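A quick aside before the break. I want you to see a complete sequence-to-structure record at least once, exactly as it would be stored in a machine-readable document. Don't worry about memorizing anything.
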Amino acid sequence: MSKIKFIVLVFVAVFLVIACKEDDDETLDPVIIEWDKTPYVLDHGALPKPELPADNPLTEQGVQLGRMLFYETELSKDNSQACASCHRQPDGFSDSTRFSLGVDLLPGKRQAMPVFNLAWHSNEFFWDGRAQTLREQSLMPIQDPLEMDETLENVIAKLSDRQIYKDQFTRAFGSAEMTAKKVSLALEQFMLSIVSSNSKYDKYLAGETDLSASEERGRLLFETEYNPFFPDESGADCMHCHGGANFENDQYMNNGLDTDATMLDFGREDVTQNPSDRGKFKVPSLRNVALTAPYMHDGRFKTLEEVIDHYNTGIQESATADPTVLNTKEKGLLLSDQDKVDLIHFLETLTDDVFVNTAAYGTPF
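That is the input. The structure line, written in tokens, reads:
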């Protein structure tokens, strides 16, 4: 090889190294993270348009931050539990155990309520309604000694050490500064985004499918009022408490689980201090009810069969029991074994397989 060719090859090699280094330097330039106010479009299907918080509009980045926090185990004392630990998507964002175990393996006092369609709840949160808003509710399990048992100060300190959260808080709120309020607002946004509106029943209402004969008979039983004087025309009368598009009534009710003497949990009374609220609990939605066992505020019933048997023949009288429920105590709901089967078949049409498999509701990690 001639000396000139060698010099040329060396020059080319040096040039390529410099060029590659410049390219590498360009790729290493810091990414500029900016506030992104792009609105989040809430797909609520055929459900009525909800009234969302005016002071916390849903944005794509706010919902994403809330999703990250919902699945973040650093919100707990020992970094072992997240909100999603007790609100699992396959179980309709509820817990399949009667009482969830916290970080110190201590059981909670009530069954974990499902987290979906919260945008349509207008009567506070938790079984007893002790949280006025969803953002207020979101911080309580973090600080509860029976649950995540962490301080908000420690949560902020842990999150502040991670660049991924500095960036996401900037995208969601315009600043990397983290506060407990921002955490609550982001969690509120994510939970408001979780919508269930694609069950077989929804498709039936839209004319996209038919109910089986048993499901249709169960639907009629569900919607027909109780009539002890005309047994052949009497129904299960479920609509009084579980009506409307979300299958609930935004009320607190005593559904005859206990007598005054056997009642251990006073429910709503613990919040209002009003004796007339004793034994009353928030009426839950029946959407996805086949996924959210066990049932009632204390998870006492393992199956839908047990729930129906309670209303059919197991009502207990107490001072605050709802009159509609007490009306059935003497004769029961008059349901036959086939009635119970049909009713359960209808309740199963409220299961939303799309909702439990929506990737946007699952873990982002």
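Two observations worth writing down. The longest helix spans residues 3-27. The chain has two domains: 60-195, 200-348. We'll return to this after the break.
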